[in-house]
Design a protein that fits this description.
This protein has 337 residues and is α/β, with parallel strands linked by helices. The protein contains eleven helices and 14 strands. It has a seven-stranded parallel sheet with strand order 3-2-1-4-5-6-11, sandwiched between helices. Strands 12-9-14 form a three-stranded mixed sheet. Helix 1 links the parallel strand 1 and strand 2. Bound molecules: nicotinamide-adenine-dinucleotide and UDP-4-deoxy-4-formamido-beta-L-arabinopyranose. UDP-4-deoxy-4-formamido-beta-L-arabinopyranose is lined by residues 86, 88, 126, 128, 179, 197-199, 202, 214-217, 228, 230, 268, 291, 294.
Length: 337
């Protein structure tokens, strides 16, 4: 058994990753302050896996709490660092909250790792670090050009980690996720936003009658149907990329950066149409103005992940929207029971 510390362990992507890890020889210790999640998600992961998880309700800003976790689990061998605030719009309004939570939280974690001799970490980064790339699909060597405070925290967290890795001989996998969507096929875990900032959760809530209509942010982009194109990635595929990264760090040294996407883009209208097929009725939408800071199109080149990690997305658009709808319709209140 290998013990892994999961920060932000009750969150959307962590929950799906935990289920995949618990299929194997991994023991999990979770830290989360529930700022954007709840205990019910952890309980459901335990239920789905029929395994127990050690859980600390703690904030990464609390250095003493981190020290306790590492001291009580001297056999932690790797960390998967999910914990962060992630809403782009909110980060523009409250940049200091984002820098404090994401940067100071990460610094505390990295220092605790150093103190307790843990030298392997998988880090949740984002395609947002590329900003509006010059060529698509974008590969990992493209310049870093984040365009908002959230994106800046991600590129800074990457850089701090790379510098620490070089100084302290750490082994690091930086995963740059494209647009994670969908849910576990059991319908028991999924994304549970209080107010959805991203397209698919919003479409899903309109389909369920919770919200009135989707506003499409512009139909005059230079894309085939005029609406924004993104590289959507099924959260279960993304979860598996973490398991493969943990395995990779058990075998190979140094810093590795990987795009986690499919390489294929879908427009906003294609996503709404696919969701209509999943839920069996039409979804009301209207075209509104462009959202500030948006870009026309971004997709990621996933070839390095295939070559070096042996990872490739297996699930397509149908599985993404079907699973999102299954989760939404089975849990109209999310995790509230
Ligand atoms: P999420 O909000 O569901 O998960 C993040 C978890 O971290 C939450 O459970 C939250 O309560 C916890 N957390 C935040 N700050 C904390 C702190 N200071 N101490 C302890 N716990 C804290 O988000 P998610 O979608 O699962 O994202 C996970 C990671 O992936 C984040 O780092 C995010 O930036 C990154 N990411 C997400 C997306 C996306 O679209 N969902 C895309 C790219 C990257
Ligand atoms: C997708 C497309 C919108 C909502 C964001 C972050 C990024 C990463 C993933 C964390 C775009 C359009 C959306 C709506 C719409 N997160 N849209 N109406 O902006 O690609 O990426 O989430 O790292 O950092 O920026 O995702 O889901 O918000 O938008 O028309 O109500 O849907 O314009 O074209 P985005 P998104």
């Amino acid at each position: 058994m290998q013990k892994i510390l999961i920060t932000g362990g009750a969150g959307y992507i962590a929950s799906h990753t935990n289920v995949e890890l618990l299929k194997g020889e991994y023991e999990l210790v979770l830290i989360d302050n529930y700022i954007n999640s709840c205990e019910e998600a952890v309980k459901r992961v335990e239920e789905l896996s029929n395994r127990k998880i050690t859980f600390y309700e703690a904030d990464l800003l609390n250095e003493a709490a981190l020290d306790t976790v590492f001291s009580e689990h001297p056999d932690i061998q790797q960390v998967i660092h999910f914990a962060a605030l992630k809403a782009v719009g909110e980060s523009v309004e409250k940049p200091l909250d984002y820098y404090t939570n994401n940067i100071t939280g990460s610094l505390n974690l990295y220092r605790a790792m150093l103190k307790h001799g843990v030298s392997k970490i998988v880090f949740s980064s984002s395609a947002t670090v590329y900003g509006d790339p010059e060529t698509i699909p974008v590969d990992e060597s493209a310049p870093i050009h984040a365009t908002n405070p959230y994106g800046h925290t991600k590129s800074m967290m990457e850089q701090i980690l790379i510098d620490s890795a070089h100084a302290n001989h750490w082994d690091v996998a930086i995963l740059r996720y494209f647009n994670p969507v969908g849910a576990h096929d059991s319908g028991r875990i999924g994304e549970d936003p209080s107010y959805p900032n991203n397209l698919l959760p919003f479409v899903s809530q309109v389909a369920a009658g919770i919200r009135e209509k989707v506003v499409v942010f512009g139909d005059d982009w230079s894309t085939p149907d005029g609406t924004g194109v993104r590289d959507y990635i099924h959260v279960v595929d993304l979860a598996k990329a973490h398991v493969q990264s943990v395995e990779k760090l058990n075998q190979s040294k140094g810093v590795h950066i990987y795009n986690i996407g499919t390489g294929r883009g879908y427009s906003v209208l294609e996503m709404i149409k696919a969701f209509e097929d999943a839920c069996g009725h039409s979804i009301r939408y209207e075209v509104g103005p462009r959202r500030s800071g948006d870009i026309a199109e971004v997709t990621g080149d996933p070839r390095k992940s295939l070559r070096e990690l042996g990872w490739k997305a297996e699930l397509g658009l149908k599985e993404m929207v079907d699973s999102a709808w299954k989760w939404q319709s089975a849990n109209p209140q999310g995790y509230k029971v």
